[in-house]
């Protein structure tokens, strides 16, 4: 980390000195690290630092090392900076995000300094989760979507999510599912044409949620792909990150019912002048469309991935059949 960035951290926290505790994780494709630093002489003991340094050589674990991929990643860090600068303060305890203490960037580096969520009571990360844990995350998503319903995503991705069609032409080009490939634009248009648009997290997988020790509270991190969209993109992606094929099928209805109940409560508690039933009616119909949109990306990006299974195929064929029927009417 360059000297200027160290000074930024000291100034933002009021610390006399800082020291490296650990590397938490490396960023995708070698674009930097997330680290934990200790502080001396400050009110807080630790901070988490996301330090992005653009590499000279672009390496991607699955071979997607194109110029477009590189530009998408740069844009994602610009978006995350804008999110914390302009929007994150709107989130309350019901859709908890880390407090951002400092933001800095130059030509090839980004620095983001956050409160340490571990120290703030969210130390648990999960690789598998119970239905109760899923409910907690779905409630977080419901409150997040209610908070930003109808907002224009200034400074963020116009269309959120890392798999958005316009940003993934390489994966579409190699997709060998002809029907899905031909319908990709229509699927995207359906999601964008919905009356009810909000902000979506854009990468709402289980790994990006941090739980309290008692399992009753949750916070979310990683806002590189936050932007406009239908809330079902987050919901479908989250459920797919938690469950295998059989459980996706088994729990679909109960999980959607829980989410929409939480969304109704969130809209009411925020005094939003919108009919929750109208939102539910539109978004329920778009759930299989959102699932199919991600399925389209996965089949082009990593055809052998475990998320490509019978449940995903069934929803995709259902959506494709519906599109075909509408054309023939």
Q: How much of the residues is beta strand, in percent? A: 15-25%
Query: What is the CATH superfamily classification of the largest domain?
Result: Aminoglycoside phosphotransferase (APH), C-terminal lobe
Shape: globular
Strand order of the largest sheet: 1-2-3-5-4
**Beta strands, count:** 9
Amino- and carboxy-terminal Cα gap: 61 Å
* CATH class label of the largest domain: Alpha Beta
Structural Rg:
20 Å
CATH topology of the largest domain: Aminoglycoside 3'-phosphotransferase, Chain: A, domain 2
Q: What are the segments in which pLDDT stays under 50 over at least 5 consecutive residues?
A: 58-64
Q: What is the number of helices?
A: 9
Second CATH tier, the architecture of the largest domain: Alpha-Beta Complex
Q: Give the tally of structural domains.
A: 2
The average pLDDT is 93
Helical content stands at 40-55%
Q: Can you offer a commentary on this structure?
A:
- By secondary structure, this protein is an alpha+beta fold.
- It folds into two domains: 3-115, Phosphorylase Kinase, domain 1 (2-Layer Sandwich), CATH 3.30.200.20; 131-328, Alpha-Beta Complex (Aminoglycoside 3'-phosphotransferase, Chain: A, domain 2).
- The protein has nine helices and nine strands.
- It has helices at residues 3-13, 67-87, 131-148, 169-174, 178-193, 232-242, 245-269, 276-301, 310-328; strands at 17-26, 32-40, 46-53, 100-105, 109-115, 198-200, 209-211, 218-220, 227-229.
- The strands form three sheets. The chain has a five-stranded antiparallel beta sheet with strand order 1-2-3-5-4, sandwiched between helices.
- Helix 3 crosses helix 7.
- The longest helix has 26 residues, at 276-301.
- The chain is globular.
């Amino acid at each position: 980390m360059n000297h200027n960035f160290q000074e930024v951290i000291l100034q933002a926290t009021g610390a006399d000195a800082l020291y490296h505790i650990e590397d938490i994780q490396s960023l995708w494709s070698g674009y930097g690290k997330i680290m934990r630093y200790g502080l001396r002489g400050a009110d807080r003991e630790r901070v988490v630092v996301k330090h992005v340094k653009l590499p000279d050589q672009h390496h991607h674990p699955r071979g997607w090392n194109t110029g477009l991929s590189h530009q998408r990643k740069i844009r994602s860090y610009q978006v995350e900076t804008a999110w914390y600068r302009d929007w994150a303060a709107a989130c309350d305890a019901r859709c908890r995000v880390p407090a951002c203490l400092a933001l800095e960037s130059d030509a090839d580096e980004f620095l983001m300094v956050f409160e340490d969520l571990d120290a703030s009571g969210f130390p648990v990360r999960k690789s598998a989760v119970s239905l109760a844990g899923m409910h907690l995350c779905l409630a977080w998503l419901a409150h997040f979507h209610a908070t930003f319903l109808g907002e224009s995503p200034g400074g963020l991705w116009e269309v959120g999510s890392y798999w958005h069609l316009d940003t993934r032409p390489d994966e579409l080009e190699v997709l060998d599912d002809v029907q899905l490939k031909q319908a990709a634009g229509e699927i995207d248009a359906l999601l964008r044409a919905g009356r009810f648009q909000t902000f979506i997290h854009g990468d709402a997988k289980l790994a990006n949620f941090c739980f309290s020790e008692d399992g009753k509270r949750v916070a979310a991190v990683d806002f590189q792909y936050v932007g406009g969209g239908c809330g079902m993109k987050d919901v479908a992606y989250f459920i797919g990150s938690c469950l295998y094929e059989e459980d996706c099928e088994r729990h679909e209805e109960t999980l959607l019912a829980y989410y929409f109940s939480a969304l109704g409560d969130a809209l009411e508690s925020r005094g939003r002048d919108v009919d929750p039933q109208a939102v539910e009616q539109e978004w329920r119909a778009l759930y299989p469309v959102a699932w199919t949109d991600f399925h389209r990306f996965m089949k082009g990006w990593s055809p052998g991935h475990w998320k490509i299974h019978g449940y995903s195929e069934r929803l995709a064929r259902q959506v494709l059949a519906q599109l075909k029927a509408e054309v023939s009417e």
